[in-house]
Amino acid sequence: MAIPGGRLIRFSRRGAGEAELPGAAELLAALPIAILTIDGDGLVRDCNPPAEALLNLSRISVVGRTIEDMIGHPMTSLAPDQPIAAYDIDMVIPLGRPHRADLTVAPLPDRPGWRVILIHGRASHDLAARRGEQSSRGLPAAAAASLLAHEIKNPLSGIRGAAQLLESGAPPEQVELTGLIRGEVDRIARLIDRMEGLSDTRPRPLEALNIHSVLSHARDLASAGFAAERRIREQYDPSLPDVLGNRDALVQIVLNLLKNAAEATGEGGTITLTTAYRHGVSIASFGGGERLALPIELCVIDDGPGAPEAIADHLFDPFVTSKPSGSGIGLALVDKLVGEMGGIVEYAREGQPGRTVFRLLLPRAPVASRRELTS
């Protein structure tokens, strides 16, 4: 992809045998995100392969046409020298096909009036609306779940104790049956324990955290257990500031998403962890106050088939799952914990070939918090 005004990015070599890193054009062409370059008149001057796949047009067919022809928006009202981000945008791409996506627009410093447009795929449901709905119904649902868990655990303990007593005096042919009873009671108890995680409304302390330290810990746990036969790749932005969150909750979130990815890919599959800083990301705070910035992005990506279309819009609802042995609690707990930290989580299918992406957007720790930790 030939970016106008682009120059080869050169990095100093650490050793005589090291090769020179690729230039900007090669790096942009390799990105899985659709990218379009437009001039001051709104004409497309270049695009990368994912953009060709999204638009279902070759580069030759795209270059020279207006950006309005490509995405259904003229982009002429935007300030050409300011980066912007727009989310949950309804686009109309060639042949009249509707498409919903996030757009990130950035100016090209070497070409006044020229801009680069990045098109990020989105889940088909509205994250902010889902978060608001869950917040409004969360307290009654949590109270009901807590009461139900408490009432079920008491008789379960009695059933398990009775099974143990029967087993001590049972003939050999019946021991298997009592063992089956105990096993099922233990399974139900574990499910209730996970339900109680959804019903816990106690506030968790938030602090400034290095997100990469959290990811490293979760990756080590996963690699030693359920993801031992998977390849876990890391693509991190080392310059990220601290995230405002709860360490235990973040570890649980990442472990749940890694387990979900490991089950989706099977042995030999690949899981990718990425971090990035997304300028301009914010959501309206509850109560109509100031908007909350969510610039810290964390993605867990796998090469599995993704969720069935019939349940894709409800993945974060409790007890929704496509797995025969799944409980449907893991992603609901992820959504709850992320929301408690002020963030959002989304599911999407992106790239060519398709990849499953769980994207977390989290708040940055205030400067004061970082200073307090170092003082």
UniProtKB/TrEMBL annotation:
CDD domains, A to Z: HisKA, PAS
Residues annotated as transmembrane: none
EC code: 2.7.13.3
Gene Ontology MF term list: ATP binding
Enzyme class: transferase
Record keyword DNA-binding present: no
Protein name: histidine kinase
